[in-house]
Design brief:
68 residues; flat; 26% helix; alpha+beta
């Protein structure tokens, strides 16, 4: 099953990792560690709460105007 991973830098260092399809969130000192932790957390979540995949996720970005 192909899922989405969103990684953002954490204030204290390292990365916060989120899977928006399940809501699982974790962290790691590196991108690789954060992603590995997210895969493990998401697998545990899915073992308790199975879900169906509806195809690959579509991820994009958008901009909002900055306020002066």
């Amino acid at each position: 099953m192909e899922l989405t991973a969103v990684l953002t830098p954490a204030e204290e260092g390292g990365y916060i990792a989120l899977n928006p399809e399940t809501g699982t969130t974790t962290q790691g000192e590196s991108v690789e560690e954060a992603l590995a932790n997210l895969q493990e957390a998401t697998a545990l979540y899915l073992s308790a709460f199975p879900m169906h995949s509806f195809g690959p996720p579509l991820v994009t970005t958008f901009s909002v105007p900055a306020h002066a």
